[in-house]
Amino acid sequence: MEHIRTPKVEQVRLLDRFSNKSASGTLHLTATHLIFVESNADAAQEIWILHHHIGSVEKLSLTTSGCPLVIQCRNFRVVHFVVQRERDCHDIYSSLLRLLRPVSYEELYAFSYNPKQNEQQREEGWQLIDLGAEFERMGVPCDQWQLTDVNRNYKICETYPRDLYVPITASKPIIVGSSKFRSKGRFPVLTYFYQEKKAAVCRCSQPLSGFSARCLEDESMLQAISKANHNSRFVYVMDTRPKLNAMANRAAGKGYENEDNYSNIRFQFVGIENIHVMRTSLQKLLEVVGTRSLSVNDYLLGLESSGWLRHVKAVLDAAIFLTKAVTVEGASVLVHCSDGWDRTAQVCSLGALLMDPYYRTINGFMVLIEKDWISFGHKFADRCDQLDGDPKEVSPVFTQFLECVWQLTEQFPQAFEFNEWLLLQIHEHVHSCQYGNFLANNQRQREELQLKDRTHSLWAFLLSEGQNYLNPAFCHTYAETHPVLEPSTLPCHLKFWRNMYHQFDRSMHPRQSVLKNVLTLKESNRQLEDTIMKLEARLQKHGISPPTPDPQAPPKDQRTLLNHTRPHSLILAAPLSLKEAQHQEEVGEEAKKCCSDTERTVEGSSGSERKESYGDLQGTYGAKVEPAVVSLEFGVARMTC
Amino acid sequence: MEFAELIKTPRVDGVVLRRPFLPTVEGTLCLTGHHLILSSRQDNTEELWLLHANIDAIEKRFVGSLGTIIVKCKDLRVIQLDIPGMEECLNIASSIEVLSTLDSVSLMYPLFYRPMFQVIEDGWKSFLPEDAFKDLESMTEEWRLSDVNKDYSVCSSYPPLVAVPKDVDDDTLRKAAAFRHGGRFPVLSYYHKKNGMVMMRSGQPLTGTNGRRCKEDEKLINATLRAGKRGYIIDTRTVSVAQQAKARGGGFESEANYPQWRRIHKAIERSSILQESLIKLVEACNDQSHSMDRWLSKLEASNWQTHVKEILTTACLAAQCIDREGASVLVHGTEGTDSTLQVTSLAQIILDPACRTIQGFQALVEREWLQAGHPFQQRCSQSAYSNSKPRCEAPVFLLFLDCVWQILRQFPCSFQFSQHFLVLLFEHTYASQFGTFMGNSASERSKLNLSQKTVSLWSWVNRPQEVERLSNPLYEANCLVIWPSVAPQSLLLWEGVFLRWKRSSRCLDEAYDEMVHIIQYNKELQNKVNNLRRQLAQLETEEPLLQTP
């Protein structure tokens, strides 16, 4: 609290990013949140911004109406305040600067966040995911693969988890030798086992080969991986970097495998760019789509020049290559990049998602993230800028992974048990630092921080509201008919993910959500089935067995039941509350003019629920009178009476 | 001319057909006067029945004596026929070329087609101007139906009956017509019930370089204004294009002569540019390269999405003037038969819930496109693959459908129809067994006596099973004005048309079916609950004694 100079500033205006609308209200600064409360009494909206979500704060030069403050958030929310007095603006600005750059993990929200849960529930939350059980599910350990305890104390590799799976024939000296020949000691280990063909997906970091160095233990390690699979005489080694980058690394004593030294490998570059390119690419993309009055041509050219979709395609193509090698050829694959925690994590996890239907369920998806991202040491703290660190380490690698998953869900609408909201919610919390799961860079650091004793698990929270994340079109038999997904990566089939990058720009979204509608209906179906059972039981008391339905019966209005599945979480407010927000807009007019009740059903839930959500950039800022001159508002979808 | 003369080889055996998403079929190829037919002559295998009119272009290739004809259709599908024998192949190809480009209206398929279904309601009589006017009469008395154009002499592209202000006599109309391009004097397009404001449409005024004026024209449009109110004229052309039009005798309404009107210029492109845009877009979609940059730059260079955005923006503007500003609007471009109709019809989709129903949308197409004189035959005689130099072809109506699809995507519960209906209309404007989209105007259709000699598309569409197929299961009547977002991020490429033959829609269709199932199941359950409740209520009133506390 000592950083907060001014806890409250009144008469602050909030400007809409894409239209000329604005709202006035009060800005509150708390230890964890920046809160904007609109002063309009009727439709008072609240925006809650977690300090950790703030990526940057910018104070623009003073204007006649006040001092502008622009806040960009990591969840792609951008808010533009105008504070009347410059001193207030400066106070908020400097407080935020301090608050959004925590220097120690202990300052993060997860350590103070306290949902109404008892200790037992909290502990159970951390026990939901068991990676040992997951490897058992894959069929490991088995006659060719075993659990090794070499990294029990994080001695061999401090960024790997304690439990690692290696070929039976890989002895301890081989492991140790191989790890010394690999960047950061990240030697080849098993991450996914394709039981049907006994083919393994292994991951590691680049070899320290330089121009000519070799390592017999490392060669034996790859030999062991190869021998563990009788289906194929060779192992694919996928270097996920562009060839040029890998060659440049040789000058620094790193590099890639020389096919001459490894008797049984097939080496392949797949050309995914590095974290710096991805960071710049997304920045460019956001700049383009954040432009006001953007023309279609500038939008498309911007999409192209940002390169973002090209990178997404490269990642997906790599995952498809991996999947084909494993499922069609039955070959084992070793995947690496430089350190083996960014591109390698993307490719291994997406490949697993394509070949194993389990990872397309809600539970399985959590396991997948836990395994390939959290436990294998994707540096969430650095990449997501959790502490005040090196800005060059920040990169949207995980966001890009989520986007690849979204592209797949768009192509296979029945294959995934979860819907888009789960992806958005996970993204939200990777950056919120509200739960312990994604804090720090690796398992060892997490243990030192005693996260499991001091914080809550996101997975428990997500499962508790699992209803909201269900894909209503999910087909349980799809896993049998389509065990392996074969997505198209033709450029025209990859799309811009509006719901992610414009999450909070409600004016750009469809006004009515098919997903929400169908989810609601599905929930209603469940309740109706219950009701029918109860009614039939009561009828049976009267000695009447279940009757046959009468198709002539007029449907009674059951709409009161329909609004039940309303997620209470923050991010869901974005896609969902579009309707609500607009409902607010319509209420006044509706009251005067009689609109049908159906409309209300379409619009969704009540205002009181809205306040629970952390808000979203609502469109109707106050009762601004229409301008006398016709000016078409740019890009605003809405409904009016 | 007999078709037989054009068909050199009516039948070839051993032809292999390759087409998107379906297995290769080998069979016999037959050419008839109107169809290209491929039959495997086995049961349960799908045959190809392709209207010659649907063929946009063909390509021939030879490898030895095996010839290949690539058939590119107006619905953007591409199929391949492998024909053994060079002579047969050449004969077939030249017959297809001739048959698919027949200019003679009297040989067109709709005149030969006999319906295989029972016509319940004759579509030719479903949407008569008289009936539409009855609705208008119930709302206002300020308008009348004029038959000044009953013999099509005042305006060849207008229908015989048009709605005009009550206080304006036919003589004034005739004079105003002389002052408007193609005789298209301002007529009523839409009456906004909520506030009594109207939207009119016309051709450009023929002011020319010396600023000709026409008192009758001024009187006509001023008659639609309430005392002391101003109206808006939306010119779909940019100021400079409108200026240039003066040199060719056209022009725009000057402030001096129309002081009660405020003129706004927008930038909807002329039809020839739209055709080029379509060709580029389809080429981009068919590009087999895997380069993302190439795809995005080709998509950008096609400008298609820009046109969609411009049209939607202008329609929103018109709707905003009417609904938000409470002002009446006159819309025109040059001829008043293309961009004008895109704007007036889309504005009605935005403003009027009735237009979002299946029947209402047909009425809108009938009223604002067919009756309003959009030259369908000229605009749709070639599609994106044609090699011949475009004359008057332009995807004006397809762009309108694309815009409707964009709004449908943004308000998926507000339309009674699904995108299938829009795709169906797209197909039938380019090639059809029905007479609806034949001819270029009401007068041409009446001269051809189409209502007697052909079947209307609406007769087909309005059968219960077809209505069901085209329905949107999520539809809930919504009486609101729906304002679409026109941000580039909100506009999508219409996959259902442009990527339709690139990838099977099976995954998406199955998911859609699942959604339909959930909705239907919900209805069934609700019925069942109601029945049980009723039954229980009856029992409990009959046997109150059985109730135990």
From TrEMBL, chain A:
The keyword Lipid metabolism applies. InterPro entries: Myotubularin, Myotubularin-like_Pase_dom, PH-GRAM_MTMR6-9, PH-like_dom_sf, Prot-tyrosine_phosphatase-like, Tyr_Pase_AS, Tyr_Pase_cat. Belongs to the protein-tyrosine phosphatase family. Non-receptor class myotubularin subfamily. Pfam families: Myotub-related (PF06602), PH-GRAM_MTMR6-like (PF21098). The active site is at 337 (phosphocysteine intermediate). Residues 581-615 are annotated as: Disordered. SUPFAM superfamilies: (Phosphotyrosine protein) phosphatases II (SSF52799), PH domain-like (SSF50729). Residues 125-501 form the Myotubularin phosphatase domain. GO terms for biological process: phosphatidylinositol dephosphorylation. Residues 581-614 have a biased composition (Basic and acidic residues). GO terms for molecular function: phosphatidylinositol-3,5-bisphosphate phosphatase activity; phosphatidylinositol-3-phosphate phosphatase activity. Keywords: Coiled coil, Hydrolase, Lipid metabolism. One of its GO terms (cellular component) is cytoplasm. The keyword Ribosomal protein does not apply. PANTHER family: MYOTUBULARIN-RELATED, MYOTUBULARIN-RELATED PROTEIN 6. This is Myotubularin phosphatase domain-containing protein. Residues 518-545 form a coiled coil. Substrate binds at residues 274-275, 337-343.
UniProtKB/TrEMBL annotation, chain B:
CDD domains: PH-GRAM_MTMR9, PTP-MTMR9. This is Myotubularin-related protein 9. PANTHER family: MYOTUBULARIN-RELATED, MYOTUBULARIN-RELATED PROTEIN 9. InterPro entries: Myotubularin, Myotubularin-like_Pase_dom, PH-GRAM_MTMR6-9, PH-like_dom_sf, Prot-tyrosine_phosphatase-like. Transmembrane segments: none annotated. Its main location: membrane. It is found in: Cell projection, Ruffle membrane; Cytoplasm, Perinuclear region; Endoplasmic reticulum. It is a peripheral membrane protein. It comes from Oncorhynchus mykiss (Rainbow trout). One of its GO terms (molecular function) is protein phosphatase binding. Keywords: Acetylation, Cell membrane, Cell projection, Coiled coil, Cytoplasm, Endoplasmic reticulum, Membrane. PROSITE patterns: PPASE_MYOTUBULARIN. Residues 123-498 form the Myotubularin phosphatase domain. The gene is mtmr9. It holds the Pfam family Myotub-related. GO terms for cellular component: cytosol; endoplasmic reticulum; perinuclear region of cytoplasm; ruffle membrane. The keyword DNA-binding does not apply. The keyword Cell membrane applies. Belongs to the protein-tyrosine phosphatase family. Non-receptor class myotubularin subfamily. Residues 515-542 form a coiled coil. GO terms for biological process: negative regulation of autophagy; phosphatidylinositol dephosphorylation.
